[in-house]
Amino acid sequence: MMNVKLMTMAAAVQCAMWAPQALATEGCGDRSCDETMVVVADTMDRALTTVADPKLPRQPIPTFDGSGFLKTIPGFNVTRKGGAGGDISLRGMAGSRISVINDGQQMGGTCGGRMDPPTNYIAPETYEQVTVIKGPQTVKYGPVGSAGTVLFERDHFGMDEQGVEGRASMTVGSNDRLDYVTELKVGDQQHYWSLDLNGSESDNFEDGDGNEIQSRYDRDNLNAAIGWTPTEASVVELNYGESSGEAEYADRANKARVIDNENWSLLAKTDIDHQFLRGLEFLGYWNENDHIMDTFDTGGDDASGVNPRRTTYGAHLWVELELNLNWQATIGVDFINSTQDMRSGSSLNELAAAAYKDVFSQENIGIFIESENGIGNGSLFTGLRYDQWQTELHGTWAGGDKDTDNNDDLFSGFVRYQYDIGVHQYYVGLGHSERIADYWETMKFGKKLELDTEKTNQLDIGWIYSGPIELTASLFYADLQDYILIDTNSAPNARNVDATLYGGEASAKYNFSDHWSAVTTVAYSHGDNDSDDVALGQVSPLEGRLAVNYQAEAWSFGALWRLVDKQDRVAEGQGNIVGQDLGETAGFGVLSLNGAWDHSDAVSVSFGIDNLLDKTYAEHIAKSGAGNDALPINERTEQVNEPGRTGWIKLSYQF
Fold first, then answer.
1. Is the pLDDT of residue 589 over 80?
2. Which pLDDT belongs to residue 273?
3. Could you tell me which residues come within 8 angstroms of residue 71 by beta carbon, excluding any fewer than 6 positions away?
4. What is the SS3 string spanning 70-125?
5. pLDDT tens digit string along 42-53?
6. Which of 130, 197, 199, 628 is within CB 3.0–4.6 Å of 250 for a Cys-Cys bond?
7. What does the alpha-carbon distance between residue 198 and residue 84 come to, in Å, rounded to a whole number?
8. In this structure, how many other beta carbons lie within 10 angstroms of the beta carbon of residue 301?
């Protein structure tokens, strides 16, 4: 991949040098040319849904993967381990409670220590759209995410006319940060070929006090597709992707020597106009995550390494219906089969010579119906889903007299009413989801299939105002029955409890004049472990953002002030598969500046200084800094701190 990286970076530089003379009449893509060019906060577009453009620059500069991107959406937080492998949390829930869909594929991580969460294999800038649906308010995309569903989506249609189009970008920043993206699409009205090459690398960063945080990483990704579009509303596409990388972390001794992924997919979809039938979509896919974590570089006699691997294949078939002019529905069936195997050794040679052995597998078949029915000035949204799960333990996980297989029948559904009157939209929704224990929770329970099914019942209400000031407000209340709690104070480290979560988000956007605008967001979640009468672990505190932007002709300048409250509602040692509370944490405020310049319709430059005042701070859900080999043991930070003052500049070109 190194030669590919060098060639891709060279191509990006050449494109940028050629761009000032090229294609100056092209537009600004899907955005208006006077729009704010550096995103600091994404707000709700419609009920419980946020749609974001992943190609726009963001502040603070996100990590290369999907986790850093989602941090600008109110309600999300990220657990930091180093510079890579951040794990997302939404409204106080994390892990498998958030369904992350990678362009239609279910692509879970494989590392028992969460070095490679699902977002680790996603380079957001190569996607056309990111959609977040909060709460159990969709049943369409496989097993329901009780916290929410995140869709990273690519464009799967051909070109309006024969030609070539694409874009390139390069980002450089502090700590030897270097990102590159090159996207190319060639074709005509009936055929196309696309290629995405991208990568990111960074050295260890320093926090505000100058402490070096072990966080080095290097990652490269490739995605290629060939498509046939026999009509404007039909497409058949074969897609191949691969991703490779390595990383170091400040919370553990293990190094991620290999974090690789390979995937294939076949998509076929078409619009149909026949009686009630309006469309069909089929997607079949296969992906495999290959990961090596080890301590071989320490040179100790107790050095060891593990090579877990996860292989997943699946498919879905969706049928779009129009039952009458006001009633549309999607019915579908989907299938997932996922197997974990692994091997181990006391040296790289021994590891490579060992045979993989299966330890855990899950298979799911789901059927659903999701519909929208227009009623007067409002719409009624409903969905119902049935999942049949089969879980099996294999090899060393199946030892002893425990049950080695389990079958579960789960039901999920939602109903939501949205009412529109003038510039106001009001909504109220009820959602129910059921979730079985995943690979990590089963491991924490002593590798036994005895945890009860987790059930979430959630109420959502909200309001969107699209007047001179754009306002949004959303509130939720979730009753969590048999919540799967990770508790390092007990043995085994997982158990079922009853819990409650409630909170919400709000935002406001206002244009003071033709040049000045502001946006502010607030997010809060409150969690209770009702069974133990203590706080629910790993719930982030109150957070607010205030951003002011000035824009005149081709220039834009902005400031972002992020404020986070202290968190004194903690349950030490308790949390989820991502992390557990380490103790109370202090609040903080971080000031950042950004700017952008449109050289032409094809070329733009954006830049920023994150954490301008070099503040030393850590997120409440950050991991322990005990594994930071960049510092002596007695100088290591309590948590993995966030980066100190960080400068960056990004050059983008589209054609």
1. yes
2. 92
3. 60, 62, 77, 78
4. HCCCCCEEEECCECCCCEEEECCEEHHHEEEEECCEECCCCCCCCCCCHHHHCCHH
5. 999 899 999 999
6. 628
7. 16
8. 6
Dist CA 538 CA 87 (whole Å): 12
Residue 422 buriedness (CB in 10 A; 0-12 / 13-18 / 19+): exposed
- In whole angstroms, give the CA distance from residue 418 to residue 425: 7
Residue that wins the pLDDT comparison between 88 and 8: 88
User: Rounded CA gap, 135 and 417, in Å?
Assistant: 15
DSSP H or E segment with residue 4: helix 2-18
β-pair type (494-511, 516-529): antiparallel
| Residues of the chain by 3-state class (helix, strand, coil), percent to 5 | 10, 55, 35
- State how far the Cα of 16 lies from the Cα of 605, in Å rounded to an integer: 10
pLDDT value of residue 18: 40
Structure-token pair, residue 137: 């308010």
Q: State which H helix or E strand residue 353 sits in.
A: helix 348-353
Q: List, in sequence order, every residue forming a beta bridge with 647; answer none if it has no partner.
A: 609
Q: Is-cis flag, bond preceding 20, omega within 30? A: no
The H or E element containing residue 2 is helix 2-18
pLDDT at 63: 79
Angle among Cα 165, 238, 223 to the nearest 5 degrees reads 55
Which residues on adjacent β-strands are paired with residue 438? none
The Cα 203–Cα 208 span in angstroms is 16
Q: Distance between CA atoms of 641 and 363, rounded to whole angstroms?
A: 39
Whether the Cβ atoms of residue 198 and residue 221 lie closer than 8 Å to each other: yes
| Residue whose pair of structure tokens reads 């029948």 in the numeric block | 409
Q: How far is CA 146 from CA 112, 245, 339, in A?
A: 22, 30, 23
pLDDT in tens, 122-140: 999 999 999 999 999 999 9
Per-residue pLDDT, 583: 97
CB-based contacts of 113: which residues, under 8 Å, 6+ apart?
252, 254, 293
Q: What is the pLDDT of residue 6?
A: 47
Bond from prior residue into 118 cis (ω within 30 degrees of 0): no
Q: Single out the residue of 521, 531, 527, 530 nearest to residue 540, CA to CA.
A: 527
Nearest to 473 by CA among 421, 538, 433, 520: 520
Whole-model pTM? Answer: 0.94
- CB-based contact 315:285 (threshold 8 Å): yes
Q: Report the C-alpha gap between 249 and 343 in whole angstroms.
A: 22
The answer to whether 470 and 43 have CB atoms below 8 angstroms apart is yes
Q: What is the pLDDT of residue 302?
A: 83
- Distance CA(141)–CA(145), nearest Å, equals 9
3-state secondary structure of 593: strand
> Looking at this protein, which amino acid is placed at residue 316?
H
What's the rounded Cα separation, in Å, for the pair 197 and 183?
A: 7
CA nearest neighbour of 166 among 17, 23, 3, 2:
23
Which tokens sit at 18? 């050629």
